[in-house]
Amino acid sequence: xxxxxxxxxxxxxxxxxxxxxxxxxxxxxxxxxxWVPGTKTVLAVATQNFIRVYDxxxxxxxxxxxxxxxxxxxVDFTFSKNVTADDSETRILVATSGKKVFMQPLEIPSDTQM
Length: 114
Fold this sequence. Notes:
The protein is mostly beta strands. The chain has one domain (2-112). The chain has strands at residues 2-5, 11-15, 30-35, 42-47, 51-55, 65-67, 74-83, 88-96, 101-106.
């Protein structure tokens, strides 16, 4: 659940993100959530098997990215930006239990940028 709060801490709105984890039973758990840096509404939710990236301004059910690895389970993830004269691409870096790090470029909708 994502809460929007005002400066005094009063809850202004609630949004439930449908992760559809019920199909996996007790086999999956959420290992982390992070807002994609520089965005207002893009949230990543990680389990040990996949990471789903949602644009909550558009949809809280279908992710804009569904990332999984073929080498061990996911243990951590973070974001980076490649900022050069020609490129300001957001990337997700995923660390696995197989001692590998995977990188995936993400095309983040421009209307979500701060």
